[in-house]
Amino acid sequence: MLARRIIPCLDVRNGEVVKGVQFRNHEVIGAIEPLAARYAAAGADELVFYDITASSDARVVDKSWVERIARLIDIPFTVAGGISSIDQAREILAMGADKISINSPALRDPSLIDRLVDEFGQQCIVIGIDSFYNAENGRYEVFQFTGDESRTQRTRWQTGDWLLEVIARGAGEIVLNCMNQDGVRRGYDIDQLSHMRDICPVPLIASGGAGTMEHFAQVFSQANVDGALAASVFHKGVINIGELKHYLAQQHIAMRPIATTTE
Amino acid sequence: MSVNNSVVIIDTACANLNSVRFALERLGVTPLVTAEAEQIQAADKVILPGVGTAQAAMRNLQQLQLVEVIRNLQQPVLGICLGMQLLTAWSAEGNVDCLNVIPARTERLLGNGLPLPHMGWNTLKNVGDGAFDSFNDGDYAYFVHSYAVATDAYTIASSHYGQTFAAMIRHHNFYGAQFHPERSGAVGARILKRFLELTDADTRA
């Protein structure tokens, strides 16, 4: 049976792992490689490295750490942030990343998705969507440039429409980041994720809001997502991945057990 | 690992060569990445990786004049993911003739209402004589694919996602893994190690 995935996300800025609250006030968590190795050993099913400076700074960022990660870990990983061309995507994939995740550049030029899928195949093209629930009009709205608060802006897209658009263009997986919940650890946005799950025929990863082990159980059992992404609860040791997977398995959620022996 | 166990990764001009190379290096083997026929023929073990589409990958192999070279290899060959599908006779992905060293066909996964691509960690099950003997039933491996080979006489491992499909296939010296052993943690490392340890006697069995 296909296991549900537990995915620590490491936000990378200037070669270090950082974490902000609702995308603001980033604090340094530590160096990339030891954290990546630690999470892989602890039972993470996959890692996402999100270079949060890249999209909003519109400059070429040093990505040599991608190859160092690829040498080090034996689980899949995705690189997000600052990939806005075929050549940049090729470079990241050639360094050993399994998937690339595109967010703001796809909003600027949706045809980028088609070209990436044509070139590299659907299986390695992930689309990240930053979605904000607007309580005033009751709509889910897509935002871009969320790595930099001063440039974060609402787009013309409602989330459901953008989701269908990127899937029609060949996206292989969706990471839906529910901005209202991000970093505040009050639980995933079950309503929104359930709604998007119903219209999403490709793997869907929940992001934003994990605070307790129960939140993970809820998002898998109620929103039926394929994976749950989280950052601060793992970085700060609030949740231990091994204990989390054990707990979820007890809740009858399919989990890949953690290797208990060293080969 | 024997020092004269030379391993070639065929450079199919695809993007994910490094992850396979690094996985072998973690096992203490330094592979040669090449598209040169002589170097491929001289290797003790050959790995055919692949991402992208069957059509594009077969076109690359034809342009590199490697189709007959690979078909005639006698040493153990391991196709990974799309590389496994290329070992079959035909793929529905682009309706393309493949290398036809394992008489099987690659079809689109049905999904049966489940999200596609089939992406993530799924369980392996030994099938047949267990010739590969490197994992236990229920061990998890990492898959990413939308096309698959149905289980048949050449299946040595299966998995299930909406339907049962071949996780590993084998015919003579040609082996295929639908999952990515290079990204499948300790289980994948064990499977790669077992491939590297194959002898001529194994592949004649």
Descriptive overview:
The complex is a heterodimer of chains A (263) and B (205). With 263 residues, chain A is of the alpha/beta class. Chain A has one domain: Alpha-Beta Barrel (TIM Barrel). Helices cover 35% and strands 27% of the residues of chain A. Chain B has a single domain, classed as 3-Layer(aba) Sandwich (Rossmann fold). Chain B is built from seven helices and 14 strands. In chain B, the strands form three sheets. In chain B, strands 2-1-3-4-14-13-12-9 form an eight-stranded mixed β-sheet. In chain B, strands 6-5-7-11 form a four-stranded mixed β-sheet. A two-stranded antiparallel sheet of chain B has the order 8-10. Chain B starts with 6 loop residues before the first strand and ends with a helix. The mean pLDDT of chain B is 92.
Number of helices of chain B: 7
The averaged pLDDT of chain A comes out at: 90
Fourth-level CATH superfamily of chain B? Class I glutamine amidotransferase (GATase) domain
What Rg of chain A do the Cα atoms give?
A: 17 Å
Number of helices of chain A: 11
